[in-house]
Amino acid sequence: MRHSISIFWRLKDNHYKIYVTKCRNCGRASSFKRLRCPYCGSQNIEYLESRGFGELINYTISYYRTEGSEQYLPRVVGLVRLDEGPVIVGEITDVDLNELSVGARVEAVLRKYSSEDPNGLIYYGLKFIPVIKK
Amino acid sequence: MKYSGFKSGIIGWGAYIPVYRIKAKDIARLWGFDERITDSLWIEEKAVAGVDEDTVTMGWYAARSALVRAGVDPRDVGAVFVGTESKPYAVKPSSTIIADALGISTRKLSTDLEFACRAGSEGVRIAVSLVESGTVRYGLAIGSDTAQANPGDVLELTASSGAAAYLVGPADESVAVFEALVTYVTDTPDFWRREGSRYPAHGEGFTGEPAYFHHIVTAVTMLMSESGLKPSDFDYAVFHQPNGKFPLQVGRMLGFPKEKVLPGIVTPWIGNTYNASALLGLAKILENSKPGQRILVAPFGSGAGADAVSVLVTDKVLDRVGRAPTVEELLSRKKYISYAEYAKFRSLIHRNLG
Amino acid sequence: MVGSGVTKVDRHYDKNYLTLIDEAVSKALADSGLDASDVEYLVVSTAFSETILDQADPSTYIAQNLGLKNVKTLTISSGEVSGAVALDYAYSLVKAGRAHRILVVGFEKMSEYPSWVINKVYAKILEYEVEGIKNVTPPDYAALIMSEYMRKYRVSREDIVRWSVKMHENAVRTPHAQLQFTISVDSLGRALRISEPVTMLDSHPVSDGAAALLVADESATKKTNREPVEVVDVESSVNLPIYLRDDITYFSATASAYKKLSSKNEIKLSKTTALNVYDTYDIYGLLTIEALEICGRGEALKCLSEMPYLNVGGGLKARGHPVGATPIYQIHELRELMSGASWVRYDGDISLAHSMSGPDNNAWLILLRRWV
């Protein structure tokens, strides 16, 4: 079994949607639903759902082979600054390697993270693509 | 049975077409077809789902666009249906994954439907009934497929990937209200896939007259006679489109001029998206329609059956077109791939797994 | 520290972990003048043996195989910094008087499985529920950091790989180093890319190795042939995940650990201080030098040629990176340097080992001094 059923199921919120954790104590925002603010540790936080749009601020084209995800190579991994403020890391897909550029506007889409085991679960999660609607 | 005074309509619609395209002539050439076959079918290129895409991911995108266009809170949706013949799981519904990923209410009806290419459309009919009966306020029907075809079979020239989604709800919130709906279904074995079989089989010529043409013509004729509508009452007629030629042909048979059929044809540029086929054609028409126009939609599914649906466009449509990517924007988003990449993306190449 | 010994770092297909450890321990004991019966405590460091070797708590079986009786044993698995943590633990025990002679052993067998399996194991050093599930791997972060550094400070790939060139020069003079050959900047054009722009020339290799250290109090210092080296202090800090950092070209955990260490112990590092840092990728070595305030931000490449006692063993790049053992190799190399056993003579009073998890997610600093 590639991933634990219960771990993946519990993480649905953070992988089917992008949440932003806003800290009422220090004012900073971070990506993902968190229990405490990662900057100041406060539990005085609130969640908001990101629309999923942002700017690609950095990326790499990866050839690093890890068992079970070879079919997705070469992988593009990028840092995206969400419109809501914080940065998130994720895979950039549907993209021509020659057309990638820092500053591109991207949107989050649901895709397969892995599905190599023909008898196992399919793991879905968000990746980023260049925005369709210009 | 005759219906009148419908209280439901389309609140929002969405489409999704993968970015990759392969030229039909490349497929034809590889497998020893005379390239002219692509002209006789009127198929130029088809859309190919990427390695990380499937019925669920495409259906999700189309459904999200439908919800955004509708401006409806996902928690108010009371039913989610996915019509597909390429379920990622033989057992485990795609509809629940899409529903949770969109934040749709957990108190809902939800199931995956199978009827070759018309299950998505059956989902629309069921959503209409649920809304009309007051069982739900909004019902979401999705048609999504990563269609399979035996490599080297003529079907491979057209079998493609895509998704469309329709949110059905109260008529007074709709961009297009339902006027008449008819479904005509018989046991006609024109195209099938056995459990465990990788690719479907079909009767070639038999898929034409006894299947596609007979069922669409019958359903549409039934609708016309029950509703009293004539071809001249319609501004558009969009049909299930396994290739570019069939819809033009059936349109002719039913008395629709070419100009009313062409706007709804998308297959020549994206292939046959199976459950999304007619529904993507309808989306394209809605995106170019004017209030007061009347559209005939006639999906078909092998096995076999056809729907005939008449919708009347309202003034709410204009405002909602631009809220999400249109079919035209999706058509223009494309990257050509080789047969080798196509084989990799569609898992045609045997690899040891695990 | 009264004794140390290491095996050559290599892909030891013909040796299992017990054989490698036995070799290193024999050398360390001989170096210290002690024998096995003097050892009261065995602290073992390994990052991945539960996964790679299907062995939970190898310390028990290592003790059994070394014929150690009546010892306390434990295994420390703390990701890429396991060895530094193990050393801190041993040091703390001795300082507290809870033990007098401790054998610290670090080991790893990264060559035991093919690369596509080991790469997945190594990727566990990042956060599973975020990077693991999304297929974001350690070299991807090194690549993002390298790109950002290049953009910000206008340096090129050829500039950065000079770090690796220097590491290989040092490895050639180090008998236990894995890659004892020189490389040139010209090889960059043909080098296999791992994660653009990081190539094989920028990255640590796949390594097996075992390193042993005797950590003791005065009860053992007379027996060793060499000048003992003492641990002055150990400090550590944790950073934010990469994607939450305001500046990914600044190793703030390393910097923060250094600030704590230097103020507590009134020391300041200079270009001529003996250092052994984690150049998991060449760019990490450069950022570490800057975080340790040896040069200014963006200036590390300029300092490189003025640092004769930097990673004399060849660093992770050329000496190798048998993960759980690496910090112990670092301590061994600094000890050799400070006791005149290295290829270069060092007269400085202090030296520093730096160990790090991934891109400065967790940074450890170990300050050493000649024991008087």
Features:
heterotrimer; A: 134 residues; mainly beta; OB fold (Dihydrolipoamide Acetyltransferase, E2P); 3-stranded antiparallel β-sheet; 2 helices; 8 strands; globular; B: 354 residues; alpha/beta; Peroxisomal Thiolase, Chain A, domain 1; 2 domains; 10-stranded mixed β-sheet; 3-stranded mixed β-sheet; 13 helices; 33% helix; 25% strand
Helices and strands in order:
The complex is a heterotrimer of chains A (about 130), B (about 350) and C (about 375).
Chain A lengths: L4 H6 L1 H5 L2 E5 L5 E3 L13 E5 L3 E10 L12 E8 L4 E6 L12 E10 L8 E8 L4
Antiparallel strand pairs in A: 1-2, 1-3, 4-5, 4-7, 5-6, 7-8
Chain B lengths: L7 E9 L3 E4 H7 L6 H5 L3 E4 L6 H16 L6 E7 L10 H9 L6 E5 L5 H14 L5 E9 L14 E10 L5 E13 L2 E2 L8 E2 L5 H20 L8 E4 L5 H10 L3 H4 L5 H4 L6 H10 L7 E5 L1 E2 L1 E11 L3 H5 L5 H6 L2 E2 L2 H7 L9
Helix pairs in contact in B: 3-4, 6-7
Chain C lengths: L2 E4 L10 H16 L8 E5 L3 H4 L5 H9 L5 E5 L5 H14 L5 E9 L5 H8 L5 H7 L3 H16 L3 H4 L1 H11 L20 E3 L2 E2 L8 E9 L1 H4 L7 E10 L13 H14 L8 E3 L5 H10 L8 H4 L11 H4 L7 H13 L11 E8 L4 E9 L2
Parallel strand pairs in C: 2-3, 2-4, 9-10
Antiparallel strand pairs in C: 1-7, 4-7, 5-6, 8-11, 10-11
Please give a structural write-up.
The complex is a heterotrimer of chains A (134), B (354) and C (372). Helices cover 8% and strands 41% of the residues of chain A. Chain A is mostly beta strands and 134 residues long. Chain A has a domain at 5-16 and 51-130: Beta Barrel (OB fold (Dihydrolipoamide Acetyltransferase, E2P)), CATH 2.40.50.840. In chain A, the strands form 2 sheets. Chain A has a 5-stranded antiparallel sheet with strand order 6-5-4-7-8. A 3-stranded antiparallel sheet of chain A has the order 2-1-3, with no helix packed on it. The termini of chain A are far apart. The mean pLDDT of chain A is 94. Chain B folds into 2 domains: 8-175 and 326-345, Peroxisomal Thiolase, Chain A, domain 1 (3-Layer(aba) Sandwich); 176-313, Peroxisomal Thiolase, Chain A, domain 1. In chain B, a hairpin with a 1-residue loop joins strand 13 (300-301) and strand 14 (303-313). In chain B, helix 3 (55-70) crosses helix 4. Chain C is an alpha/beta fold and 372 residues long. Chain C folds into 2 domains: 3-114 and 206-221, Thiolase/Chalcone synthase (Peroxisomal Thiolase, Chain A, domain 1), CATH 3.40.47; 124-205 and 228-370, Peroxisomal Thiolase, Chain A, domain 1, CATH 3.40.47. Helices cover 37% and strands 18% of the residues of chain C. Chain C is built from 15 helices and 11 strands. The interface between A and C is large, with 38 and 33 residues.
